[in-house]
Design brief:
3 helices; 71 residues; 3-stranded antiparallel beta sheet; alpha+beta
Length: 71
């Protein structure tokens, strides 16, 4: 069964948070996550919004050197 890009991004990021690979307080950079997962930034953004609604990430949207970052 093929997962949508947003579902893949969500599963990947959530797993990395749960297993501690993405520690509390770490900045999550959309472009880096997209490259790591092999999807565009839109599914990563959708996944981060879903994770925020679940309380696993906090949106502190910053633009640093032209890159969007979340914590």
């Amino acid at each position: 069964v093929m997962q949508s890009a947003a579902a893949r991004a969500y599963s990947h990021i959530r797993s990395r948070i749960i297993d501690g690979a993405l520690p509390s307080g770490a900045f999550l950079i959309e472009q880096d996550l997209a490259a790591e997962i092999g999807v565009s930034r839109t599914p990563v953004r959708d996944a981060l919004n879903r994770l925020e609604s679940e309380g696993l990430v906090t949106a502190e949207r910053l633009v640093v050197n032209g890159r969007d970052e979340y914590r």
